[in-house]
Design a protein that fits this description.
With about 300 residues, this protein is of the alpha/beta class. The chain has one domain: Alpha-Beta Barrel (TIM Barrel), CATH 3.20.20. Helix content is about 45%, strand content about 15%. The protein is built from 11 helices and 8 strands. Helix 6 packs across helix 7. The model has no long low-confidence stretch (mean pLDDT about 95).
């Protein structure tokens, strides 16, 4: 199995918003090459003119520092209901928004793109018939997005299994279920973006809170995996520093072993680390990212 280390640009949101800054940090200070660009850092709500300028700047800086925008994903500011919003007009707005974002992603050279599947409103989650209709509608829209992305030359789309029923895929079997609902007859594969810190803490099945069970069961269909140090309460996107590694359960050896057992052929492990907007954490971002990279570097390629 080929395993690569990369990074999700969520760390840069409102700290290093300019491509000249976050590209330099990733390529020069961290020594990484594979990037998962988040919609928030790209500026996916900006005007078409601003997006074109940002796209050109990313292309220039990525070439300067030898970066590959390998995949793209929604981010903190776009963690919204989108394809499962109660209002049809809003759902269709987000469908068109995702098409525009995926189009920009393809122009940046991304082989895949994705998001959470959608988020149910609490009222809809509580009504079985409405819930089923919302999920079925979202699945059809994802099928249409797969067809669209195929025309852009992409290799796959993906969704991130989450941790509560409203956000879908909170257990291994439910993640399988939504993927199956979309995958049938699509023009390109609809895959997972697994996260070692997700899973339903209320599930009676211990596998659903075991990151290694998720990797063994679903890793072969997850071309990228979000990694961070995970504690017992699954309460944060912690760095791989000595402090958190003493209390955490994620180790490179076990992650790679689980992915090997899954049958995965190639995977990009993406650091997805967030720091609270509190001191001293806000001033520790680069230090913690560098330590996290050094923790993983002996085990995976940064190429």
């Amino acid at each position: 199995m080929k395993a690569y280390l990369g990074i999700n640009t969520g760390f840069a949101l409102n700290r290093f918003p300019q491509p000249e800054s976050w590209c330099r940090i990733i390529g020069e200070e961290l020594g990484l090459r594979r990037v998962q660009l988040t919609a928030d850092v790209f500026g996916a709500h900006h005007s078409e003119e601003l997006q074109e300028e940002t796209l050109r700047r990313i292309q220039t800086e990525a070439e300067r520092y030898g970066l590959w925008v390998h995949t793209t994903f929604t981010g903190a500011f776009t963690r919204v209901n989108h394809l499962m919003h109660p209002d049809e007009g809003v759902r269709l707005y987000w469908f068109e928004w995702l098409k525009r974002f995926f189009s920009a992603s393809a122009r940046l050279g991304a082989v895949g793109a994705g998001s959470h599947a959608g988020i149910l409103a609490s009222d809809d989650e509580g009504d079985e018939e409405t819930r089923a209709r919302r999920v079925a509608d979202a699945a059809r829209l994802w099928q249409d997005l797969c067809d669209y992305a195929s025309g852009l030359g992409m290799e796959f789309l993906m969704f991130e299994p989450m941790s509560i029923p409203r956000e879908l895929g909170e257990t291994i079997e439910k993640a399988r279920g939504f993927r199956s609902l979309v995958q049938n007859g699509t023009a390109l594969p609809f895959l997972y973006c697994l996260d070692v810190d997700h899973g339903d803490l209320a599930s009676p099945d211990p596998r659903d809170t075991d990151p290694y069970a998720w990797l063994v069961e679903l890793g072969a269909a997850s071309p990228v995996v979000h990694i961070k140090q995970s504690l017992l309460d699954k309460g944060g996107h912690h760095p791989f520093t000595s402090e958190y590694n003493r209390r955490g359960k994620i180790t490179p050896e076990r992650v790679l072993d689980a992915l090997e057992r899954s049958g995965a052929k190639e995977v990009t492990l993406l650091l997805e680390i967030s720091h609270r907007e509190r001191m001293p954490y806000d001033g520790m971002v680069l230090k913690d990212l560098k330590e996290s990279v050094e923790y993983w570097r002996p085990h995976v390629s940064a190429g």
